[in-house]
Amino acid sequence: MYFFISQLSINDMLLTTVIVPFMLHILLNNGGTIGFTDCIIQFYFFCTSEAFECLLLTVMSYDRYVAICNPLRYSSIMTNEYCVKLLISCWLAVFFIAAMDTVTLLMLKFCRKNVIDHFFCDLVPLLEIACSGTQFVELEVSALGPPVLCIPLIIIIVSYSNIIVTIYRIPSNISRRKAFSTCSSHLIVVSIFYCTLFSVYVVPTSGQSSTISKVLSLIYTVVTPFINPIIYSMRNKDIMKAIKETIS
Q: Using CA atoms, how far apart are residues 92 and 189, in angstroms rounded to an integer?
């Protein structure tokens, strides 16, 4: 569990490094300018980070499923080698997905208005200022988007459905509470991440103002990485004990 939490922390640092510095530059200067190459690089690493978090949260749900539903086999299933293989598979998959999205975006032509109504180079604002046809890009996003978002979410739902059934079969209330407490932090993070992500990219945006879209984007690019360490720290007795010992 701690191995996967450390990878989530690394991914959160990657996302905030890509987004926050330029966002602060925009806010302090009432606008900002970014080069085309820098914009594409930011878009690539943004896609990489978001796709990796989708897959990593799925792997973490599987880890909790094995720990609660198959506790006696946990150490033999979730070995160090297997965890590293899962992690490498996630990184390779997201590098490939982000590369496909970026290459497809580079096929567009930007020849007129170059003002992006956003605080980072996201797909929808870039499509709005493209002066060439965006049908191919939209088709590619429609083909890749649902599998990347929905398949991990389905796996998470199935994992937690089995976890809940297993927890309710435990006769002791104390053991039930302890088993559920190991999953509560992950459930909170998954809920915040997927609710905002679906609000921006899956729910139809007709009638949705650009301000609302930017606020929702702000939640999963800045707020979520900020509160992830707080959620996992405040709900983890080992970490709280270590903090108290360090302070005292």
A: 23
Count of CB atoms situated within 10 Å of the CB of 172: 9
228 contacts 9 by C-beta, under 8 angstroms = yes
Contact status, residue 32 vs residue 118, Cβ threshold 8 Å: no
What is the per-residue pLDDT across 139-162, written as a single tens digit (0 to 9) for each? Answer: 766 666 667 778 888 999 999 999
Single-letter residue type at 46: F
Cα-Cα end-to-end distance for the chain: 27
Query: C-alpha angle with apex 186: 177 to 174, nearest 5 degrees?
Result: 5
pTM metric for this prediction? 0.85
Q: From CA 222, how far away is CA 215, in angstroms rounded?
A: 10
Q: Name the token pair of 43.
A: 């878009």
pLDDT tens string 27-60: 888 878 888 888 889 999 998 998 899 999 999 9
CA dihedral 37, 43, 48, 50 (to 10 degrees): 160
Would you say residue 137 has pLDDT above 80? Answer: no
Structure tokens at 75: 């150490």
